[in-house]
């Protein structure tokens, strides 16, 4: 293993190129040397997290079935549920309870709430603590019209005093740590994330997760690491979790070094490669990504994901949900195309099991990919129409 440089600093290193510190892996891939500080234990409030690699919330994808399957692969520090409407929880709507579902194996877990009314948010937060939330996460980043129109999501970032009062009331209402997930600001002219994060630290928020884009950007452009760094610099001790566009070890290394963040939250990269956390954790501990997942492990991940959906949500939902992720599983397992095609209109657990047996028997149709780039649908077009 070739070690060119190692850094052990806690300070952000925006001036240093990623290529200044690299290892060469067994496969001759350039692997950066992880910052030594990321081996230190981390707590979010009083909740210890096993690693500094978190699964970001993704509405429609981060179901408990997916979270449990990814957790079994190893390396996961913290998961967050899809965003859940606080009012719907109070009104006992079934959908809200499905979205916020958790179980003892699904820990530590942050349940993410959105809304803007303190009374509703506090009541929903208390109920979610009763349902097993290790952490309550407040959504302050969602750009979607339905959410911002009512004053929730990223709209909260526009009125920093109101946002701080809302979050403070939730911190006082529950006896678990409260975190906030936000963007850099509403747009380039209002980068309120550093100011808000500082206020949140003052009222006892346990961590802030920053997606390094503004609401106006949606998912366009590159993630602004210097923007996240400004948030890290604005607070004293509160952990800042960097988020956005982390798909490779090099991306993770850059996120840690440029921003000085305490942990990283990964969304789309985890859908494309559900073993990414295991690789990141191995890298953080050893400087190497460890072995690639085998064909059998990849197929087993797909099996657990589908069967988890089936057990919890029934055949109809499981089949529809699984179809959304099938393309990535095809890329990920290199299952033969005819077998992929026979799952496209999946309508029963029996068909899934039959095709799965054929996939296992046939093996991969080509070389298993080690770099994963799945297209995850995100809203596009003018942001006001999302
Ligand atoms: C399909 C989809 C659904 C999302 N749903 C949520 C959500 O419910 N709550 C939230 O805070 N962020 C949500 N996000 C944003 C992600 O958590 C994350 O901030 C963003 O995707 C950038 O990280 P990534 O590049 O690692 O995916 C969603 C993103 C996607 C693509």
Taking strands numbered 1, 2, ... along the chain, how are they ordered across the largest sheet? 5-6-8-9-10-11-12-13
Radius of gyration: 21 Å
**Structural class based on helices, strands and sheet pairing:** alpha/beta
Q: What global shape is seen?
A: globular
Secondary-structure element order, N to C: EEEEEHEEHHEHEHHEHEHEHEHHHHH
State mean pLDDT (0 to 100 scale).
90
Distance N terminus to C terminus?
A: 48 Å
Helix content: 40-55%
CATH superfamily caption of the largest domain: Aldolase class I
The CATH topology of the largest domain: TIM Barrel
Please provide a written account of the structure:
The protein has 14 helices and 13 strands. With 386 residues, the protein is an alpha/beta fold. The chain folds into 2 domains: 43-286, TIM Barrel (Alpha-Beta Barrel); 295-362, Orthogonal Bundle (Non-ribosomal Peptide Synthetase Peptidyl Carrier Protein, Chain A), CATH 1.10.1200. The protein has an 8-stranded parallel beta barrel with strand order 5-6-8-9-10-11-12-13, surrounded by 6 helices. β8, α4 (118-130) and β9 form a beta-alpha-beta unit. α7 packs parallel to α8 and α12 packs across α14 (349-362).
Structure keywords:
386 residues; alpha/beta; TIM Barrel; Non-ribosomal Peptide Synthetase Peptidyl Carrier Protein, Chain A; two-stranded antiparallel sheet; 14 helices; 13 strands; disordered N terminus; binds flavin mononucleotide
């Amino acid at each position: 293993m070739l070690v060119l440089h190692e850094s052990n600093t806690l300070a952000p290193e925006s001036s240093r190129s990623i290529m200044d510190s690299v290892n060469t892996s067994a496969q001759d891939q350039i692997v950066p040397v992880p910052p030594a500080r990321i081996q230190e234990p981390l707590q979010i409030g009083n909740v210890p997290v096993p690693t500094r690699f978190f699964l970001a919330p993704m509405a429609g994808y981060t179901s408990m079935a997916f979270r449990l399957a990814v957790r079994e692969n190893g390396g996961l520090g913290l998961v967050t549920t899809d965003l859940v409407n606080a009012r719907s929880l109070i009104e006992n709507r079934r959908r809200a309870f499905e979205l916020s579902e958790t179980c003892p194996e699904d820990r530590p877990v942050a349940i993410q709430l959105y809304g803007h009314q303190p009374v509703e948010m506090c009541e929903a937060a208390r109920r979610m603590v009763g349902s097993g939330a290790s952490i309550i996460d407040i959504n302050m980043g969602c750009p979607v019209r339905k959410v911002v129109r009512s004053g929730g999501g990223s709209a909260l970032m526009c009125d920093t005093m109101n946002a701080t009062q809302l979050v403070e009331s939730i911190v006082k209402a529950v006896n678990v740590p409260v975190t906030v997930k936000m963007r850099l600001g509403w747009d380039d002219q209002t980068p309120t994330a550093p100011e808000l994060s500082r206020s949140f630290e003052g009222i006892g928020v346990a961590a802030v997760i920053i997606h390094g884009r503004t609401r106006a950007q949606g998912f366009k452009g590159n993630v602004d690491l210097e923007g996240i760094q400004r948030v890290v610099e604005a607070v004293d001790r509160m952990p800042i979790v960097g988020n956005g566009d982390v798909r490779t070890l090099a991306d993770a290394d850059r996120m840690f070094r440029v921003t000085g963040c305490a942990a990283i939250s990964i969304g789309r990269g985890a859908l494309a490669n559900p073993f990414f956390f295991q690789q990141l954790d191995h890298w953080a501990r050893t400087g190497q990504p460890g072995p690639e997942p085998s064909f059998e492990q990849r197929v087993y991940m797909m099996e657990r994901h589908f069967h988890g959906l089936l057990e919890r949500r029934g055949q109809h939902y499981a089949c529809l949900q699984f179809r959304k992720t099938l393309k990535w599983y095809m890329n990920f397992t290199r299952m033969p195309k005819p077998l992929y095609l026979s799952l496209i209109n999946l309508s029963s657990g029996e068909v899934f099991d039959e095709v799965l047996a054929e996939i296992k028997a046939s093996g991969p149709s080509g070389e298993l990919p080690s770099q994963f780039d799945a297209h995850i649908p995100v809203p596009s077009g003018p942001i006001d129409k999302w």
